[in-house]
Each structure stands twice: as C-alpha cells, then as structure tokens.
Amino acid sequence: MSTALVIEDSLTEREIITHYLKSAGVTVLTVNSGEEALEKLAKLSPDLIILDVVLPGRSGFEICRVLKAESNTKKIPVIMCSTKDSEMDKFWGMKQGADAYLPKPIDQELLVRTVKNLLRS
C-alpha cells in the first residue's frame, strides 16, 4: 500500500483530501505546515506528497523547492493543491518542481487519477 504525506493547514481541506486518498487505498499522514513536513520527512519517506501552496510560515512553493533540492526527497512526486489556480500559479508551481498542480476545491476523481498516475511512474 502506498503512503501519502498531506501538507495542509486547513483542517477541512486536510480531512477531505485524507478521505479521498483513503477511499483510493492510500495510507495518509498529515502535517499542518511546511516546517512540520520537513521534520517528518527527515524520519520517513512517503511515496507521494500533497502540498498546499498557502501555508503558515514558508509557502508551498518554497517547501517544494526545498523538497526537490534534497537528495532524500527529490524523487518523491509532489502534487501542489491551491485555490491559487491561475495559469501563472500553475506555471510557477511546476517551475518549483511540482509533478502536478490541482485547483481547489479538490475534485476527487482528478486527485485519485493523478495520484495513481504518479505512483505508477
């Protein structure tokens, strides 16, 4: 079974994403901030990361850059999710190393399809 780390500061969004992932058979770990995620990632290696853009402290864009620069996390696929869904936001997210960029509110079918595609590759 695959494991996903969800980095999301909104309890409601975190619960929705967790529900969608669990219904697709994915084990879910959650954190509220980028800093908390970096601490957790020093001890574990999930198969996938779902990352909000707007977070307390450092933005999801910054966290994605850090993840893709570190040898122990650079190969983990990152899906950025945000209400910031202009073409420029998507472009910037992909430029930071994101493997996918999904708009909020999250579409369950799109999220599950994206997760499965990234876990296969």
List keywords for this structure.
single chain; about 20% strand; about 120 residues; 5 helices; globular; 5-stranded parallel β-sheet; alpha/beta; Rossmann fold
Notes on the protein architecture:
There is one protein chain. About 45% of the residues lie in helices and about 20% in strands. It starts with a strand and ends with a helix. It has a 5-stranded parallel β-sheet with strand order 2-1-3-4-5, with helices on both faces. The chain has one domain (about 5-120): Response regulator (Rossmann fold). The chain is globular. With about 120 residues, the protein is an alpha/beta fold. The protein has 5 helices and 5 strands, in the order E-H-E-H-E-H-E-H-E-H.
The quaternary organization reads as single chain
Radius of gyration: 13 Å
Largest sheet: 5 strands, parallel
The beta-strand count equals 5
CATH architecture: 3-Layer(aba) Sandwich
Cα-to-Cα separation, first versus last residue: 15 Å
Q: Report the CATH topology name.
A: Rossmann fold
Helix content: 40-55%
- Could you spell the SSE succession in H and E letters? EHEHEHEHEH
Mean pLDDT over all positions: 95
Short description:
The chain is an alpha/beta fold.
Helix and strand layout, with pairings?
Blueprint: E1 3-7, H1 11-23, E2 27-31, H2 34-41, E3 48-52, H3 60-69, E4 78-82, H4 87-95, E5 100-103, H5 108-120
Parallel strand pairs: 1-2, 1-3, 3-4, 4-5
